[in-house]
Design goal:
Layout lengths: L9 E5 L4 H12 L5 E3 L11 H12 L6 E5 L3 H7 L7 E3 L3 H9 L5 E5 L5 H13 L6 H6 L5
Parallel strand pairs: 1-2, 1-3, 3-5, 4-5
């Protein structure tokens, strides 16, 4: 079983639509004595999500972070951007069940949250379950091995 290495920082980033959630999640993770590396944005002023998704994905890709959290309005933009990186499996999660399966079956290493479609409390729940869930390996590893081009 592959678990996340929570001794490394958690990479986190958002665009303007996800800024409030990012700040809330940083506090939530700090309450669990976990360290975040915040890649921005640092206000709710309009920005371009790739400017924050790429650095988060790079930190995870280079194993400088245990996993990543990306937040934007729909989470589609940050997921598409992060998934351009080799070895990144960014999963758009909006329910607990989706977050569990993203870890168990896809060995997701970045959770992407849609700020316009979930509450802050749901965002916390999804991050918590994402961190607690292990990759099952086995037949799922065979599928993961076929993802890279």
């Amino acid at each position: 079983m592959n678990t996340l290495d929570l001794t490394k920082p958690i990479a986190i980033g958002s665009d303007h639509a996800g800024f409030k959630y990012k700040e809330q999640l940083k506090s939530f993770l700090a309450s669990k004595n976990l360290i975040c590396k915040d890649f921005g944005t640092h206000s709710d002023a309009s920005v371009d999500y790739p400017d924050y998704a790429h650095p988060v994905a790079t930190a995870v890709e280079n194993q400088k972070a245990s996993f990543g959290i990306l937040i934007c309005g729909s989470a589609n933009g940050v997921a598409i951007t992060a998934n351009k990186h080799e070895g990144i499996r960014a999963a758009l999660c909006w329910t607990k069940e989706v977050a569990v399966l993203a870890r168990q079956h896809n060995n997701a290493n970045i959770i992407c949250l849609p700020a316009r479609f979930i509450s802050e409390s749901v965002a916390e729940e999804l991050v918590a379950v994402f961190m607690e869930t292990s990759f099952e390996g086995g037949r799922h590893q065979n599928r993961i091995d076929k993802i890279s081009c």
